[in-house]
Amino acid sequence: MKILITGGAGFIGSHLCEKLLEQGHTVVCLDNFFTGSKDNIKHLSADENFKVVEQDVESPYDFAVDQIYNLACPAAPIWYQKDPVKTVRTNVLGAINALELAKRIGCPMLHTSTSEVYGDPAVHPQSESYWGNVNPIGVRACYDEGKRCAETLCFDYYRERQVGIKVVRIFNTYGPRMAIADGRVVSNFIIQALRGEAITIYGRGEQTRSFCYIADMVEGLIKMMASSFSGPVNLGNPAEFSVQELAAKILKLTDGRSQIIYQDLPADDPKQRQPDINLAKEKLNWEPKVNLDEGLQKTIEYFKRVL
Ligand code: NAD
Ligand code: UDP
Asked: Ranges for the NAD(P)-binding domain (predicted)?
C-alpha cells in the first residue's frame, strides 16, 4: 500500500514511517520540519519506498495514496505555544486538507488527536464519553481547542461527506527520538539526570500523567487504521504516576545524583491524566505491553548515545 504520513519527521511520525516501511509499504512523509528533523528519518532515506516532501499542511496537497495518517502538529507545550495562531491553523487547516484529499481519492484518514481534549479533567480516569474541561482562552487552548475542532471536522466529514475517518486520542508518549529541546517531562528529566543538572519539577510534582512507550503507540495507530471503527478512541498506558514519582524513577534508573528543584506550575497544567482504554481493548484488541521501567530504560540508553 502507499501511505501518506503528515508530520512523518517528528517523534511518533518517524517511528510510524519506519514500521510501515518494515511491513513493505511505500511511505510518503510530508513535513515542514518545525519540530521534526531530517535526522529522525535519515536512516530511512536509502529505502526506495520512502519519499520525503517538505511542505506545510496549511496548504492543500495531492498524492495518490491508499491511507493518510495526519500527525502534523507540534506536541510539546513550549513548542505549540511559540506561535499559537500557527498551531490553530496547523490543526484546523491541516485537518481540512487531509480530509479533502481523503474525500477526493476515497481513502481513510487517521487523525491523531490528544488527551488534551479532556483539558483539566473533572472525571478520572478519562473515557471517550467524557466531553472534557478545557479553558478556551488559556495558553494551552491553541492546541486543545485546535485538536477539538479537528475532531469536529473529522466527524462532520464522516457524517456529511462519507470520509472514512479514524480518530485516536493519544496520551503522553515517550521513547527514543524525542527531541532534546522538546521540554517534555520524560525527556527533560532524563537529560537533566544524565548531565547531572537539577531536575525541574513544575509545581509540587503531585500532578499525574500516564506514559505510553512509542512501540505500543505505533502498534495502536496501525491497528486503528486497519479497523472499521471511527473512534474516538484513547491510546495510552493506563499506569498512572505523579511527576514526583517519575523523577524518583529516572534518578534511580540513571543512578543520577541531581538535586530536585521546584519551579512554577505552567498555567492550566492538568492535575491528573489516566486513559480508560476499555474501548481500545474491545475494538482494536490493543493494550500497551511495555511498562514504564522498561520503556524508560530504552529511552535512557537512547539519550546516553545522543547526548
Ligand atoms: P512532534 O512535534 O515530534 O512531531 C510533529 C511533526 O509535525 C514534526 O515533524 C513537525 O515538524 C511537523 N509539523 C508541525 N507543524 C506542521 C505543519 N504546519 N506542516 C507540516 N508539518 C508540521 O510531535 P509528536 O510527539 O510526534 O506528535 C505527533 C502527533 O501526535 C501530533 O499531532 C500530536 O499532537 C499528537 N500527540 C502526541 C502526543 C505525545 O505525547 N507525543 C500526545 C498527544 C497527541
Ligand atoms: N513537567 C515538569 N518538569 C519539566 C517538564 C514538565 O514538572 O521539566 C510537568 C508538566 O508541568 C506537566 C507534566 O510534567 O505537569 C507533563 O508535562 P509534558 O510537557 O510532558 O506534557 P503534558 O502531558 O502536560 O502535555
From this structure: 4-299
